[in-house]
Amino acid sequence: MAGATPKLIKELREMTGAGMLDCKNALNETDGDLEKAVQALREAGLGKAAKKAGNVAAEGLVSVLVNADFSKATMVEINSQTDFVAKNDNFIKLTQDVTAHVQATGVSETEELKKTTINGQVFEEYLNEKIATIGENIVARKMVTLSTNSGVVNGYVHSNGRVGVILAATCDASVKDKAAALLKSVAMHASAMKPTVISYTDLDPEFVENENRAIRAEIEAENDELKRLKKPLKNIPDFVSKSQLTDEAIAAAKAKFEAELKEQGKPEKIWANIIPGKIERYITD
User: Fold this and answer.
1) pLDDT by residue (tens digit) across 164-175?
2) CATH code matching the domain that covers 6-52, chosen among 1.20.1250.20, 1.10.8.10, 3.40.50.10860, 3.30.200.20
């Protein structure tokens, strides 16, 4: 047979996604036999993948897949070595295929995933071929699936492809579509704001205390500059989180306001009209 021809090289590239030179060499080695050339690339690919496996995969994409009835959502992080490869169509397709596979198999760990079968291949072999084709080490690093029988799930991937969110909520079947749309909006908000907890009540007390000191110090520093410029000073709050506004804290604030009103000579009978507004502003601040 004639070996590599432009037509055969083009066809082999479309079949395998391998580079032009690799396709040309494989066709020459197999005298233009496409099937043998594919096999030669596969065998070479496994060798290349082994060499690249030690390279650090620190870039990549997050992929989210939500099933048709909003009962299951899967999120997978797949890493490459460079941002350039992360934008490659083959890599994007890989992340989508792997996410669908993770959802179908229900795996939640990388080692579990490696032992599964995808498209008739052991996953580890399948990924090694993709590594050889794409030309960089690729790692399926994290995966999670949420499912529900009494509500909805939904998710969102930020436009940068690096931040993804999946959420689940309980709801009546009659409002499932509206609840799914709401979850999508909440997921978009979460991907932009990157919260670490769902509610302020879940914040770690030590984190809150550290933030409280830091924010107060920042405002004090700003006030030093405002004072120098003879401008109005900013209020320095006692607390920076609702988690700190305990009943005791509110009671202490109320007592402070009462003392201030007494010192100002305000009649006690009008305190009830003034203090609620002060408490509201205190909480807002």
Assistant:
1) 999 999 999 999
2) 1.10.8.10
